């Protein structure tokens, strides 16, 4: 006969299997309660919501990138072409020199008026072996210090490769007004050593041409300074002393 004290115990909840307490006894759920969300170490995405990129914005950005790349490529190609042309042609500025300068009928009758005739013989040289030069709107002027005494315009001309061209600029001053300091400076130089130091300046447009290649017009300046003309205080004529003088040339 079975021992009544060994009957199985009933009415108790099932033991916990996940380390958490069993549900209350007054519930009909026979299993242990599920663990809280923190048990699973859950993390929720809290960043900004994802938006689909704007197709128009993408197209604009692509167009700008391509345009920028095209401009850079064009600049590089153009620079390369110009560099190759420079290597092949090696363009150089022309050279100018004053071969002679004569003054006649010089008259400083008063402290402010001067009259004189100037004849300036100039030689232009093209040092380029592959380029022809064309000169337009050539102007020449005679100065004492920075004061212009006379100015004239010369006819246009061209120069072939390795060519030298000589021309004469004839200028005249007819009772030209002088500043008092300029008149005193001229008289002072004439009385001191019998010479007057003049300057010749030229301004012109020049074009470089080699076959089908043509460069755009550039303004060219030539300065021929320290031209000492022997004309004493009692003389009205004088010529350049010291021989030909080379001029400084620049764009």
Characteristic key phrases:
single chain; 20% helix; 2 domains; Immunoglobulin-like; alpha+beta; 41% strand; 251 residues
Report what the structure shows.
By secondary structure, the protein is α+β, with helices and mostly antiparallel strands. The chain folds into two domains: 54-89; 95-250, Immunoglobulin-like (Sandwich). It is built from two helices and twelve strands. Strands 1, 2, 3, 4, 5, 6, 7, 8, 9, 10, 11 and 12 form a twelve-stranded antiparallel beta sheet that branches. The longest helix has 35 residues, at 55-89. It is elongated.
Average residue pLDDT: 82
| Estimated share of beta-strand residues | 35-45%
Secondary-structure element pattern, one letter each:
HEEEEEEHEEEEEE
What count of domains describes the coordinates?
2
- Rg over C-alpha atoms, rounded to the nearest angstrom: 49 Å
How would the global form be characterised? elongated
Spans with pLDDT under 50 lasting ≥5 residues? none
CATH class of the largest domain: Mainly Beta
Could you please say which CATH topology of the largest domain applies here?
Immunoglobulin-like
Global structural class: alpha+beta
Helix content: 10-25%
Give a brief rundown of this model.
This protein has 251 residues and is α+β, with helices and mostly antiparallel strands. The protein has helices at residues 55-89, 180-193, and strands at 95-107, 113-125, 132-144, 147-154, 157-159, 164-177, 195-210, 213-214, 218-230, 238-240, 245-246, 248-250. A hairpin with a 2-residue loop joins strand 7 and strand 8.
């Amino acid at each position: 006969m079975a021992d009544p004290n060994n009957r199985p115990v009933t009415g108790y909840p099932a033991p916990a299997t996940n380390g958490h307490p069993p549900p209350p006894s007054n519930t009909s759920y026979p299993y242990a309660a599920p663990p809280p969300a923190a048990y699973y170490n859950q993390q929720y995405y809290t960043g900004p919501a994802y938006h689909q990129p704007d197709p128009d914005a993408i197209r604009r950005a692509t167009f700008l990138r391509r345009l920028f790349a095209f401009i850079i490529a064009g600049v590089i190609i153009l620079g390369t072409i110009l560099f190759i042309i420079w290597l092949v042609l090696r363009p150089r500025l022309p050279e100018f020199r004053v071969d002679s300068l004569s003054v006649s009928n010089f008259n400083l009758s008063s402290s402010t008026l001067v009259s004189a005739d100037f004849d300036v013989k100039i030689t232009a040289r093209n040092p380029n072996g592959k380029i022809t030069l064309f000169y337009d709107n050539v102007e020449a002027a005679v100065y004492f210090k920075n004061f212009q005494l006379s100015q004239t315009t010369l006819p246009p001309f061209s120069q072939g490769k390795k060519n030298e061209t000589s021309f004469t600029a004839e200028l005249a001053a007819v009772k030209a007004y002088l500043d008092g300091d300029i008149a005193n400076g001229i008289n002072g130089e004439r009385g001191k050593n019998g010479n007057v130091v003049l300057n010749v300046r030229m301004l012109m447009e020049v074009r470089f041409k080699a076959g089908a290649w043509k460069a755009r017009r550039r303004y060219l300046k030539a300065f021929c300074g320290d031209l000492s003309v022997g004309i004493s205080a009692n003389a009205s004529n004088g010529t350049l002393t010291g021989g030909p003088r080379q001029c400084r040339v620049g764009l």
